[in-house]
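Q: What residues go here?
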């Protein structure tokens, strides 16, 4: 990370205000879309998408018929973008809050990770795993993508390896899937893990 930078809400709001959003894929990514597609008929599960940005996953699941999709995001601009694209998305499900401060009641059934973990200061990684476990019901799922690579530029994004990540999640989760994604978008091919973890 560059010296003097704090990755707070003002930092992220400025990134959106200046269109420095290279992470934004403009749509739900294929690994998550394929995962969502095999879930079957939509149900009332409570799904949290933290650090959601413009929240294409929320848009996708909302249109698929899931009524309980929640988005947590510190920056206002991407939430407004979501509401413009999806005017009937429930405003009360847009949580403009710090992920680490979210309450665990009622618990969530699923948390979706997409380019949020890599945006956090790496010192927060143990706390990320702990907070995901805190927010999920027993048996709940953490699903998503984690970079399994290093970056030459100062982060964010911050890279890492599956061995490093395993240690954060092992205390709280059973590993259902933790392998290199086979259907990543081009620039991320071979460089990210698809993870599906069940809370113990
Ligand atoms: C790299 S962006 C990824 C956004 C989105 N997931 C995507 O893939 O397009 C990281 C996002 O996390 C948000 N964020 C950073 N720290 C956060 C926190 N503590 N709680 C909630 N959101 C946070 C930022 O505002 C930013 O939108």
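A:
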């Amino acid at each position: 990370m560059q010296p003097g930078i704090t990755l707070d809400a003002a930092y992220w709001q400025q990134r959106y205000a200046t269109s420095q959003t290279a992470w934004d894929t403009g749509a739900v990514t294929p690994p998550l879309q394929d995962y969502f597609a095999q879930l079957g008929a939509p149900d009332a599960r409570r799904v949290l998408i933290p650090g959601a940005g413009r929240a294409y996953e929320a848009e996708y699941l909302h249109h698929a018929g899931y009524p309980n999709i929640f988005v947590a995001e510190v920056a206002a601009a991407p939430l407004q973008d979501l509401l413009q694209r999806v005017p009937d998305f429930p405003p009360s499900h847009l949580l403009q809050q710090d992920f680490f401060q979210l309450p665990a009641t009622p618990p969530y059934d699923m948390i979706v990770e997409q380019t949020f973990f890599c945006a956090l200061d790496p010192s927060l990684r143990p706390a990320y795993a702990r907070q995901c476990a805190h927010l999920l019901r027993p048996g709940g799922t953490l699903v998503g993508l984690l970079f399994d690579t290093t970056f030459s530029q100062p982060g964010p994004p911050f890279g890492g390896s599956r061995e490093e990540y395993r240690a954060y999640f092992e205390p709280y989760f059973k590993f259902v899937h933790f392998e290199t994604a086979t259907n990543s978008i081009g620039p991320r091919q071979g460089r990210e893990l698809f993870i599906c973890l069940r809370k113990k």
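A: Context that may help when evaluating the design: The helical segments are 9-17, 30-37, 56-64, 76-85, 125-135, 162-169. The domain at 37-199 is CATH 3.40.50.150 (Rossmann fold).
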